[in-house]
Structure formats: structure tokens, C-alpha cells
Amino acid sequence: MRSYLFPTVAIAALALATTVAAAPNRFEAVVLGELNRFRADPAGYADVLRSYRPRFEGRLLRGNGNGEIDILTNEGVSAVDEAIRDLRGERPLPRLDPSDMLARAAADHVADQSRSGAVGHYSRGRGPGERMKARGGGPYVNEVITYGHHEPAGVVHQLLIDDGVPGRGHRHSLLRATHRYAGVACGRHPVHRTMCVIMMSQTPDGSPPPPPKR
Prior knowledge:
Keywords: Signal. The radius of gyration is 16 Å and the shape is globular. Helix content is about 35%, strand content about 20%. The chain is built from seven helices and nine strands; from the N terminus they run ββααβββαβααβααββ.
């Protein structure tokens, strides 16, 4: 089955949907684990992305089994090769600790789009910063979203390859050294079957980061 992938630009919000339990399921926990695997050795992780190259037929990326859909990409294998080159020069990054509040705000977005079938960073007129504030946190967050992946590793790979996204905003978000906390929420999507929302921040609740030490 073919599905068009709708890329979404990562948002750094500087500025309530249905209540969803924030306790991560195994899929979400593995997504966070894969993120930390990548951040521990970005240069080495470039070799993982090489596995995508044989799956391309022109611009069509064949699903990797387990019911994963085929995705018609914008750039084909060239975006994969660019990601590999970029990661080769990156140094290890701090580990992302789980944040309950970030996960709840992400889960609110999944709950809304799982009903509406919408894509993007806004639900009911609220972006990631507004959703965090509705949860009692602060707006200093960064959010990335994927659609259509049935494997946790595929979620991270899509964000790093960042096909069709000008400026590679998702890739730069995952490479941001100031991120220290993350919340992951994944669920069903009526158009793309699955979606994952990852919210990251320098603080566990999206509050302003502490001033630098002198």
C-alpha cells in the first residue's frame, strides 16, 4: 500500500485535549531508547541509516515488514546519503531523561489527531507550547512528529533523514545538545495508521532553563 508522507517542520515553541495516561507503553519506551542510542554515538548511528538504501525504488521507500506502509518520498535516497554525511561529523550528546509532563502533552496531541485525522503541530488551535501550559508546564519545548511508521527505530530514522523538510528541522532538533528531557506518545492515525509525537526540553516541565553559571 502506498501512502504519501506529510513531513512537518519541527517547532521550537517560545511562547486540552482528552486526558491520556502518560505511562509509556513498550513502543514509546523503545522510541526513547532508540533516541538515546542515536545521541550516544551519532557518528556510529550513520551506519544504521545505510540499511535504508536498498529499500528504495526510485522515490518509493518500501515498508520494512510488520504491516509498515510504503512511503512515496520527496527526495529518494539522496536525503538518506545527506543524513549519513551529516551524522559522521557529530559528537556524542547528553542522554534524554523521560518527562511525565512532556509525555502527557504529547499524548494529548495524539488523542486529538487519532480522532480528527489531521497532521501537523496544532490541535484545537493549540501548538506544543499551549498544550504544555494547559498541563501546568512552560512553553519552552521543541516538538517533532512522524506518521506511518510501525517500528520504533523507523520513527527515529524518519526524523534524522528528514525527507522533504527544508532546513532539516527534525534532524537538528534531535541533535540539539541543550535537550535533556523528552516525552514520547504514539498511537493510531486514521489516515497514516500510526503517529508518534516527541516533545523535548531543557527542563522536565518546559519551564525556562536556568541562567548559565558564571
